[in-house]
Design brief:
Blueprint: H1 2-12, H2 15-21, H3 26-40, E1 45-46, E2 53-54, H4 56-84, E3 90-95, H5 97-101, H6 103-115, E4 119-124, H7 127-135, E5 141-146, E6 159-174, E7 193-198, H8 209-215, E8 221-227, H9 230-238, E9 244-247, H10 248-257, E10 260-262, E11 270-279, H11 285-297
Parallel strand pairs: 3-4, 3-5, 7-8
Antiparallel strand pairs: 1-2, 5-11, 6-9, 6-10, 6-11
Helix pairs in contact: 1-2, 1-3, 1-4, 2-3
């Protein structure tokens, strides 16, 4: 509901008109927008002029909300279709939010174009929850990052995985007036560089911290914000609050549009494999067929 309200406000630029379209009173509509801003933790609407317009954070949250609403509608249709056709199996994927945002939709579309359509559902959650769901057989597959610095998933009995894509964690920050980065991680003259860090419970941070320790630059980085969500870090980076290592697949549009810039040379980037995981003891004919198709396409020996 919140994101539909935000979309109406972006469309009309006026609280009263948006409230009418949303079939709610203007005070109630304003309270809902305020509640959304409090939940996100930053203003989403610039009210300083008329018509009002969304801030950068507001546009980002609207994009994420519309994607989520679209995905929910698709999932509802898939569930209804599966219930009406019990012979069709609903394939359950789970992944951390950073993969689910941009990589997963593009990967699934490419996969279905090659394999054929499937009925599927995605759970975007914290990775430890995804792993527990896999162990409890509540999902068929988990997508997770792996790098030379750290695997995201520890091995457990019957677990196997294969690579289905690649990404990078790259240091990014806001652009200056000339289009260059306001911070450069390789510039030793810059001390106390504000650092936007993944929280201690975020597995994606395990790929970054070993690099920082290996390069011995922890003393130059001043942690000003922590969050386990890449979207929250992206908002702070776009606001110019510091530097963060974020998935290239997520921030490439910001780099191309001039909102963000790489804050270091390629040697500061962290290569990531995106792996699909399953347990051998939880399969059915369709999921085995999917696994064999992907393994053969990636030239991975079947065991």
């Amino acid at each position: 509901m919140w994101f539909k309200d935000l979309g109406l406000l972006a469309k009309t630029g006026n609280f009263s008109q948006a409230a009418i379209l949303g079939n709610v009173s203007q005070p109630a509509f304003s309270r809902r927008i305020k509640a959304l801003e409090q939940w996100v933790g930053t203003p989403l609407v610039d009210r300083s002029s008329q018509p009002v317009f969304l801030t950068d954070a507001g546009n980002q949250m609207l994009e994420a909300g519309q994607q989520a609403l679209s995905r929910l509608e698709t999932e509802r249709e898939n569930v209804q279709d599966a219930l009406s056709r019990p012979d069709r199996y609903l394939v359950n994927f789970a992944t951390q939010h950073s993969i689910g945002w941009r990589f997963y939709p593009a990967w699934l579309e490419a996969f279905e174009n090659a394999f054929g359509p499937i009925i599927s559902r995605l759970r975007a959650d914290d990775l430890p929850n995804c792993i527990e769901d896999l162990k409890k057989r509540e999902v068929d597959f988990v997508l997770a990052y792996q790098s030379d610095y750290s695997p995201s998933m520890s091995k457990f009995p019957m677990l196997e995985s294969l690579v289905i894509g690649y990404d990078q964690l790259i240091p990014v920050c806001k652009c200056d007036s000339d289009g260059g980065p306001i911070y450069d991680i390789g510039d030793t003259s810059q001390t106390a560089v504000p650092y936007l860090r993944f929280g201690p419970t975020a597995p994606i941070g395990r790929h970054v911290e070993p690099l920082l320790r290996a390069r011995g630059i922890q003393d130059r980085l001043s942690v000003v914000y922590e969050n386990s969500m890449v979207g929250a870090l992206r908002i702070r980076v776009r606001d110019g609050q510091g530097i963060a290592w974020l998935p290239k697949s997520l921030v490439q549009p910001d780099i191309e549009s001039g909102l963000l810039a790489k804050a270091g040379k390629d040697s500061w980037s962290i290569g990531l494999e995106i792996r699909l995981h399953r347990t051998k003891d939880h399969t059915n004919p369709l999921t085995r067929k999917i696994w064999m198709f992907l393994a053969l396409r990636e030239n991975i020996p079947l065991t």
